[in-house]
Amino acid sequence: KAKQVHATYDLASLLTLRPQLKRIDVNDFVFSARYDLDARRWNLSALKLYIPKGASEKMPLVTLGSGILQYSRISGSETKIVASMPLSARLGFDSQTRKGYSFDFQTGTQAGGSGESHLKGFWRPGYLDLAGGIASADKSAFEMEWMIGSMAAVLEYDQDDVFTLDMRILDLHSDQTIELDKVAQMGPAFLETSTPFAALRGFFSRYNPTGNIDLYVKASGNLKQLDKSILTGSVDCKDVTFCQDRFPYRVEQVQGNVDFTKNGVTLNRLSGVHGDVRLTIDGWTHGFSPNWEYDFHITSENMKLDDDLYKALS
């Protein structure tokens, strides 16, 4: 819904009785994206986008201002708003390439002084690239705080929805452990039952990681069967802190590289400290419960037999 919608038509198209929109301006709006958990269906499925095929035709310039983007999930008769954020956007024909459409999305500063998110990109049927920075900062929506300094992603797909994705995220920073239950609520429904995601969620809940990382991800599969996608990538730990719930020996300033695939994770000699104690951590894990295999090594050349260690030992 919107308070103001202004449409501009091409005059020549009106004279030829073939009205063609040149521009649409929408202000003071609420865009509500809803997912029905029972029917496994989006309300967006009824939204049809007409893509002009002729060289003389193009989609109108669309500008959105002073709006609110809401994401809700429906279960039975209950509708829960998972996230809500200010939004301004611009989508229009790319006059430089003349082959697709450029867009610019920006969230406004939240009440309480939280940051902005800004994404720019280019889209044509079968291809999408975007770049920018993202800050959650809206506690009322995400109940967590995190920030992405910069990100870039390229998605390619065909008429059968077969896709490949390359994504790079730099300076992903969080001062508190990201609650993956909240991420699952915001993401596709298959996340909540995905075995790799469940394992990742278990890791986050047990180790409580915070800090700063770079993330590189490659994915391939079918957009209609995302749960069967093949996922590989790496995490570059730049300054991470973690503390295992069953062995509360806090490790800080963790640096190093972690490689992951759909079936396992490899730690490549991570370094960290506990006070004056220097630690090195490496190893691997393959598969998931009940066929989980792992081999980890934690070593130190100056381990202290102090109260912190004794309190962590059971």
Describe this structure in words.
With 314 residues, the chain is mainly beta. The chain is built from five helices and 16 strands. The protein has a 16-stranded mixed beta sheet that branches. Mean pLDDT is 83; it is low at 110-114 and 138-144.
Class per helix and strand makeup? mainly beta
Q: How far apart are the termini?
A: 58 Å
| Average pLDDT reading | 83
Low-confidence stretches: 110-114, 138-144
- Give the topology string: H per helix, E per strand: EHEEEEEEEHEEHHEEEEEEH
Output the keywords.
57% strand; 314 residues; elongated; 16-stranded mixed sheet; mainly beta; single chain
Brief digest:
The protein has 314 residues and is mainly beta.
Note the topology.
Blueprint: E1 2-9, H1 11-15, E2 21-36, E3 41-42, E4 61-75, E5 78-93, E6 101-106, E7 118-124, E8 127-135, H2 139-142, E9 147-157, E10 162-174, H3 180-186, H4 195-207, E11 210-222, E12 225-244, E13 247-260, E14 264-274, E15 277-286, E16 293-299, H5 307-312
Parallel strand pairs: 2-4
Antiparallel strand pairs: 1-2, 2-3, 4-5, 5-6, 6-7, 7-8, 8-9, 9-10, 10-11, 11-12, 12-13, 13-14, 14-15, 15-16
